[in-house]
Design brief:
Layout: H1 11-20, E1 26-35, E2 40-43, H2 52-61, E3 65-67, H3 68-78, E4 83-86, H4 93-105, E5 111-114, H5 118-123, H6 125-134, E6 139-141, H7 148-156, E7 161-164, H8 166-175, H9 180-183, E8 188-191, H10 199-213, E9 220-225, H11 231-239, E10 244-247, E11 254-262, H12 268-281, E12 286-289, H13 293-307, E13 312-314, H14 320-331, E14 337-340, E15 355-358, H15 365-372, E16 382-388, H16 392-399, H17 401-405, H18 419-433, E17 435-437, H19 443-446, H20 449-454, E18 458-461, E19 464-467, H21 469-479, E20 488-493, E21 496-502, H22 505-509, E22 515-518, E23 521-529, E24 534-540, E25 545-566, E26 569-589, E27 595-617, H23 626-648, E28 655-659, E29 664-669, H24 677-683, H25 685-698, H26 723-735
Helix pairs in contact: 3-4, 8-10, 8-18, 10-18, 12-13, 16-25, 18-21, 23-25, 23-26, 25-26
């Protein structure tokens, strides 16, 4: 790679810089990335361990020579090693696992190829189908769109190559007796786009793979992903065995220009819409990424209304046919701009793409690499623009851009012991088997046996666990999603269901008075009933403001699983019981985010749940007042969560926090039951503190601002925050690392979230 900070390689950048200067913005940094061809391997005809039929088929397809990492991958898999291939988007890692699978299929060995989404699986079909049909290898795809007649053929005569997704496999194993024929005695299970399997989704998939493995004695596992920071570790957790890792290039051959833009005086979403419009009006095809459904709706609305460009929305919650239509129109150049949530982060083919615009620094460096890798396909240079500004991590990387581009991909993490996940998969496993001896179950399943017995979902006699068929089926049908664990709130407009949100997120988006964007329309929430899991909305005309919740969170209880001391900070990790109380909301102006008003709720909305988390006890360093004390601890809580993002690869919404006047700080997984992020924070706490120190010591504000200790997710609208107080605490911690502190561990005072 090479770097150029002084000379603009694209004429377009000078134009963009001159335009954004009008709004107090500036082009802050340009990073030029150049990638050459990967190291070459042997010619296809020289690979003796491939059959003549395979070699002929590959040459006819246009594959004459392999890259070395492809050759090493093929050899590893054919030698019977569980393998993970780590290589960038578009570098040819698919051939690394597909060629050995095809080779074995010529000897009647069966393989299951799993993709994280139905759309991605179907996007890969052409290549797989063409190669398999040329060899006379039976092929099939099983997902929600597979016609019943085709499903029947697959169940009656399982193909040698079957393409599916984890969700379909999960439901089929649980609820379809016919599925056993297609999933029994598999020789290979391939997990593509492996970097996606983290957090709750990864925890679910770990148990789907376990359930599959119980149907086969000698299955070989193969994973492939573009950006995995800890492939050996996550591979062992997902596959429950040691893994051989093959590394390929991080990016395909070509040029990419990475630009950091400081968004200045406009709101983030207005500025993002403006940048998209500048590029589209210059004739570029643009894909913009956001990390939230509401942000994507807002950007698309502003781009259409304020800047008069045609832009489509691509996000979860849209009907599959709507997403397919958008992808096809973009591929055929019928539309030139899409704003998307991570639904287009994966390798779905949407044709030529000139520019990526990210509305904020993505939730992880891995996600950044994945999105950036989409630009510049078909041998064209890629333009990647990231909108940066009032965010602690963005501010840090604006001042230290080399630190951003020199880092390694983030580690993946899962939480297999999440009780909600374990409950679902123990029931699903018993639906496969009917009964099983308790001692044959994994410890994570044993831990939830009593909970399920209390709810009459299972029974136990003489250490044998039996399924309650009807209740278990109903439970799996209702709670069976692999993408979530919390209760689902259904959203209604005029008594018609228009969408859904998972708790606890539904609390923060659907409280009475909340402005909610959906399907390009604006709605007002009139009621949120937690007991019936229902939110009622009315449609409004176009508005120029939005709402943010005011809430508090309290730690009701903690069951400590592990304890240690980090310097003088006492740490506990375990199960935490939290109570969320939404007390009101603020209204902010859309263009500038200026505060318009604050409104309390007549009846606060409450909901409690268990998750995983850390309890840290910080010392009292002699604050001059009670307000200074809580402002310091509150600011430290915010910056510790911000600092966790680059250290553990978590997003803003993976973790939440609470601070107390007694010096206790809680950092918890925002997902019900846990997602694994707080576990990594516990393990890497010293690194998190050092990054937090860099953030607060590097800011030049008076005593707190969006670039150091403010958070867009703060429950009290960023009141009671002191950057100087947080810095004093961190200075004290780092300078008194081995000093023994007071043993008073009692949590006191009103919490601030």
């Amino acid at each position: 790679m090479e770097q150029d900070n002084s000379k603009n390689p694209l004429n377009l950048l000078e134009y963009i810089n001159s335009e954004v200067n009008k709004y107090g913005s500036k082009l802050s940094y340009i990073y030029t990335e150049k990638q050459e061809f990967p190291e070459l391997g042997p010619n296809i005809n020289d690979i003796e361990f491939l059959s003549d039929a395979i070699r002929k088929s590959l040459i006819e397809y246009g594959i004459i020579k392999l890259y070395k990492f492809q050759y090493d991958s093929i050899k590893s898999i054919l030698n019977g090693k569980d393998t993970i291939i780590v290589a960038g988007t578009g570098t040819g890692k698919t051939e690394g696992f597909l060629i050995p699978v095809l080779e074995k299929a010529t000897n009647d060995k069966r393989s299951l190829l799993l993709y994280p989404t139905k759309s991605l699986a179907r996007d890969q079909i052409f290549r797989i189908k063409q190669l398999s049909e040329n060899l006379g290898i039976s092929f099939g795809i099983l997902d929600g769109d597979t016609p019943l007649s085709e499903r029947k053929k697959i169940y009656e005569n399982p193909p040698l190559l079957l393409v599916s997704n984890p969700d379909m496999v999960h439901y089929d194993l649980s609820l379809n007796k016919k599925s056993k024929s297609i999933f029994k005695d598999l020789d290979y299970i391939i997990l593509d786009e492996m970097h996606v399997y983290k957090g709750v989704f990864g925890s679910h998939v770990k148990w789907v793979l376990y359930r599959l493995s119980q149907l086969s004695k000698n299955t070989l596992f193969v994973g492939a992903g573009a950006t995995i920071g800890n492939p050996e570790e996550i591979g062992e957790k997902l596959f429950d065995r040691k893994i051989n890792v093959i590394y390929g290039p991080k990016r395909r051959k070509g040029l990419a220009y990475h630009i950091f833009l400081d968004y200045g005086n406009l709101s983030r979403w207005t500025f993002t819409s403006y940048i998209i419009s500048l590029l589209v009006k210059k004739g570029l095809k643009v894909l913009s990424f956001t990390d939230s459904q509401q942000m994507s709706e807002l950007i698309a609305r502003i781009a259409k209304r304020n800047y008069e460009i045609e832009i489509s929305l691509h996000r979860a919650g849209l009907k599959p046919e709507e997403r397919k239509e958008i992808e096809e129109k973009f591929r055929r150049n019928l539309i030139n701009a899409i704003v998307a949530t991570p639904t287009l982060e994966l390798g779905i083919d949407i044709g030529d793409l000139d520019a990526i615009v990210m509305s904020s620094l993505p939730r992880s460096y891995t996600s950044y690499l994945q999105r950036a890798g989409r630009a510049g396909r078909r041998e064209k240079p890629g333009l990647i623009i990231t909108v940066m500004g009032d965010d602690p991590i963005e501010a840090f990387y604006l001042n230290n851009p080399n630190s951003f581009f020199s880092q390694e991909p983030d580690p993946s993490y899962i939480q297999p012991e999440n009780k909600e996940v374990s409950k679902l998969h123990l029931l699903s496993y018993l639906l496969q088997k009917g009964y099983i001896k308790r001692e044959m179950l994994p410890k994570e399943f044993i831990n939830v046996v009593d909970d399920l017995k209390e709810n009459n979902l299972i029974s136990e006699e003489d250490n044998v666990v039996y399924i309650n068929w009807k209740k278990a089926r109903d439970y799996v049908n209702f709670h069976g999603s692999l993408r979530s664990v919390g209760p689902i709130v259904k959203i209604y407009n005029k008594n018609k269901e228009i969408g859904f949100r998972e708790l606890p997120n539904a609390l923060y988006e659907l409280y009475p008075g909340a402005i909610y964007f959906h399907g390009g329309k604006t709605f007002l929430s009139t009621d949120l009933d937690i007991n019936s899991l229902r939110a009622d909305l009315i449609e409004l005309k176009d508005l120029n403001y939005y709402t943010k919740p005011l809430y508090n969170i309290d730690l009701i209880d903690m069951i400590s699983k592990e304890e240690r001391v980090s310097g003088i900070v006492k740490l506990k990790y375990g199960d935490v019981h939290l109570l969320i109380t939404v007390e009101g909301y603020v209204i902010k102006e859309e263009f500038s985010s200026a505060l318009i008003s604050e409104t309390p709720l007549e009846t606060p909305i409450k909901w409690d749940y268990w998750t995983k988390g850390i309890l840290a006890k910080y010392p009292d360093i002699g604050f001059e007042s009670g307000e200074k004390r809580i402002s310091s601890y509150h600011a430290l809580e915010h910056v510790l969560i911000s600092a966790s993002r680059p250290i553990v690869g978590s997003s803003d919404t993976d973790l939440g926090g609470i601070s107390y006047p007694s010096g206790h700080i809680v950092i918890y997984d925002s997902t019900m039951g846990g997602n694994g992020a707080s576990r990594l924070v516990y393990e890497r706490f010293e690194k998190v503190e050092k990054m937090a120190h860099k953030i607060v010591s590097g800011c030049t504000c008076n005593d707190g601002c969006p670039r150091c200790v403010f958070s867009p997710y703060c429950g009290n609208n960023n009141q009671f925050l002191s950057r100087k107080g947080a810095l004093s605490l961190l200075d004290y911690i780092l300078n008194n690392y081995n000093k023994e502190e007071s043993k008073d561990d009692k949590l006191k005072g009103r919490p601030i979230a």
